[in-house]
Known about the structure:
Layout: H1 6-20, E1 51-52, H2 55-70, H3 74-90, H4 92-103, H5 108-121, E2 131-135, E3 138-146, E4 149-153, H6 159-172, E5 176-180, H7 186-202, E6 210-213, H8 218-226, E7 230-236, H9 239-246, E8 251-255, E9 261-264, H10 270-281, E10 294-298, H11 299-310, E11 314-316, H12 319-329, E12 330-331, E13 334-335, H13 344-349, E14 362-366, H14 372-375, E15 382-388, H15 391-401, E16 408-412, H16 416-426, E17 430-433, E18 453-454, E19 460-461, E20 468-476
Parallel strand pairs: 1-6, 4-5, 4-7, 5-6, 7-8, 9-10, 9-16, 10-15, 11-14, 14-15, 16-17
Antiparallel strand pairs: 2-3, 3-20, 12-13, 18-19
Helix pairs in contact: 3-5, 3-6, 3-7, 4-5, 4-7, 5-6, 6-7, 10-11, 15-16
The chain binds nicotinamide-adenine-dinucleotide (NAD).
Amino acid sequence: MAMIDDARIDEIVARVLERLGAGATPAPARPASGGDGGRRASNIPRGTLGVYADADEAARAARRGFEANERTPVATRIRMVENMRRAVLANNEALSRFAVEETGLGRYEDKLAKNRLVAEKTPGPEILRPVAYTGDDGLMLTERAPYGVLLAVTPTTNPTETILCNAIGMVAGGNAVVFNVHPSAAQVCNWCVHLLNEAILAAGGPRDCVVSVERPTIDSANLLMKHPLVRIVVVTGGPAVVKAAMASGKKTIGAGPGNPPAVVDETADLAKAAEAIVRGASLDNNIVCIAEKEILAVDSIASELVRQLQRNKALLLDARQTKELEKVVLEGDHVAKDWVGKDAGLIAAQIGLTGHGHDLRILLCEVDEQHPFVQHELLMPVIPLVRCKSATDAIAMAVRVEHGFHHTATMHSTNIDHMAAMARVCNCSIFVKNDASHAGLGLGGEGYTSFTIASPTGEGLTTAVHFTRERRCTLKEAFRFV
Ligand code: NAD
């Protein structure tokens, strides 16, 4: 018989009450909080290929995988990466369903879109281009060479997306990767690692260039960060893991948190801006690091923008309802983790706003700049709006509330001076003008994708280029034919 825990029962009761149109529950029900790393969640297939019980064993296997991958012909590596993409596309429904089920976060249909994006738009070996200089002294050639074994520590918010994205970039460069994933997503991630190994083997590639730790913990992450066989530490997550990685003493690629503002000025097309903001802010219930976290609107258009947002499946809360919501989604000055990544309808039901199902995209409230909904990365579909006197004020506020993460910002405007000013002062890895934030990931926007956006260490959207080292060969007075 399938086991069902208390949190799951609470969630089901809340959903049933919601459907029956029952009133507010005085104490917030606790939603399903995702896998606990201890019990197995339902019927997620067990990953075995490339999955190791012990972190040291995983690092040793990855070292063997690297030695084999380094000798693998480029043509085979190209086939390996193609097969990895196909494996995720072929299993996307199950991976997306299991990710929502195990982590308790996000929306199935959005996970489908995110996995598809990564499978289709993550650069492979083709992004690694040799560079040649020739002159009177002969030839100089630079090529991108593998580092060896990379450690990838990955988040619960984009579990399989980050596995596929990192694995493609690292394997394409001739490396091997050992994953220490978030404990709340270990089962689905280990199954994803298993699928990638099947795909690599089917392409004639080596074993174990993509491996994972079966039951990852913070201790196993720390052990691997210091492991002598690990050459580079690549982390995707909040501030604590970036800090830990930087203290490892190894080269670190750190993809940390964001708090992306959406500035809307008096020249914006408000109907388009509202549609794009709701689409971006509600992607996977706002757990994506690049998703709009607060709206900063110029006062003269703010009321009309609010009306337009309401036409796009945003539910406007009044001041009393906003206070009620604070009690649910904040614990003191911190974000209540239980509500991260939950549906807007489920959160609304906690303050008595029942009858909104899966269809409701965001909860909207008007607050001031210092409000915790603005200051914190809530990672849930609760989006505050702050009125600003002018575009200049809004841009200055955007810089303040982004907290110097230099991660992502968006702007809706037709004034080229305003857009240029914000691009310059926000100084973010991703700046999107006149569309949803996810256009900056290539979802509905131009360009390749990455789910490891390294702002603290400066690589931006990471690819195989960042997972390889530059090597130069110089040849004196030869191979020059002009
Ligand atoms: P998290 O920081 O809780 O966990 C991320 C990973 O780090 C997990 O594998 C976790 O086990 C590990 N970890 C956490 N603290 C650690 C420590 N002290 N030592 C070693 N390992 C540690 O984050 P999450 O909840 O999984 O993901 C959400 C956060 O990640 C948000 O802040 C989001 O903005 C950020 N994020 C950033 C990017 C990006 O590309 N910049 C992408 C996705 C998520």
